[in-house]
Amino acid sequence: MRRQHNGYHHNGVQVVSSSAGPQARLTSHCTAAENAQLLRTDYVHNPFYTQRYFITKPAVLVPHTRENSTSRRSHTVQFTLPYDWWQKVSNVNEKYEIIVRVYETKKPHIDYLPHDIKAWVNERPLATPPMVPASHADVKPRPQAKPLVMSQYLKPRTSNMSGTQDSLKLSWYHCDGKKGRPTPQMSYILVIVREYTHNEATDRIRRLKRPREVDITKKLLRVKASLANQDDSLQQVGTKMNLRCPITMMPITEPVRFDNCEHLDCFDAANYLRMNSKKPAWSCPICNKRLPFGTLRIDKWFENVLKEAGTSSREVELDPQGNFKITDRDEEEDENVGTPEAIIEL
Question: What are 316-325's pLDDT values in tens digits?
């Protein structure tokens, strides 16, 4: 089944955006060797996509023109697409998409869409994400930061049309800091990805992602206990740990946290992906740090705690060795676990 291309009819003539002008960046698709190199590094940073083919290399989003005022910027790129990949993207049953991902150059794991961004593919307006309400008056709102999907706007082509070019134009408001956060230096990539639902993405974390081993979390626990012992002002009491997901306050099924989080608490992978599929933020819901998604993994030590404590337990208190006692539990107690205040050794 072919994807409809919004009524763009091929007439045998190469079409170039009239707004591109002589300053438009012209690029051909990456070579096989270049793709093999790029695929070794995660440039998408999104669990709902896996990168499959790079159309362009990562590049700084340099304004080609200033439109109407000194605050408006634009950038145009023309590109070619191999026919076999065009076939995959055009077939809706394949679940392939072509996306443009804009991100902060100095923080490549953070998606970024500037104020009042507008996009056109082959001179047709591209849908942009919903707006995030401004924090206060006189601040320009920005759209939700997520990749822009271009698939249905590509030109039709046949196998003997290897030179067919598509064009992408981005236009945005460059903020100087007076009406919001100053626009940072931005980069972008054009890449073909395989798309996943949040359920599929959760399953991929479970099946394919290397979990965090027990010893690694135990080492963090020892470090936290050592720091507490060095501070005489701290009362020598156990560390409380929540066993409920902070997103839904429901029991955790797949406990995850980022490698650089300094807390032992985890959150549920499925809840986290479901929340970010609707409103992408990608911050840790416990410490609010923005960390690369590639460092999110299931915590085996926390899994053991959940297993020993039982599904009705809400909170435990840890000692420096990692043993714990249940301090809060639902009224209907699990028959398979000890009573509150009983020490459970891991």
Answer: 998 888 788 9
| 167 close to 78: Cβ distance less than 8 angstroms | yes
- Encoded tokens for 235: 């009362």
pTM of the model: 0.83
pLDDT, tens only, 2-50: 565 444 333 322 333 333 444 555 555 678 889 999 999 999 999 999 9
Tokens 């961004």 sit on residue: 117
- Report the C-alpha gap between 39 and 29 in whole angstroms: 14
Q: Write out the DSSP string of 126-171.
A: PP-PPEEPPSSTT---EE---PEE-GGGSPP--TT-TT-EEEEEEE
Higher pLDDT, 226 or 182: 182
Question: Phi-psi region for residue 264, left (φ > 0), alpha (ψ -120 to 50) or beta?
Answer: alpha
Task: Locate the domains of the chain by residue range.
Answer: 25-195, 203-344
Class of domain 203-344: alpha beta
pLDDT at residue 287, as a whole number:
96
Q: Which CATH homologous superfamily contains domain 25-195? A: PINIT domain (2.60.120.780)
Is the Cβ–Cβ distance between 115 and 68 less than 8 Å? no
Residues 15, 121: contact at Cβ < 8 Å?
no
Looking at per-residue pLDDT, the higher value among 24 and 310 belongs to: 310
Report the alpha-carbon distance of residue 126 to residue 113 in Å, rounded. 14
Buried/exposed code over 268-299 (b: 16+ C-beta within 10 A; e: otherwise): bbbbbbbbbbeebebebbbeeeebbbeebbbb
Contact status, residue 341 vs residue 325, Cβ threshold 8 Å = yes
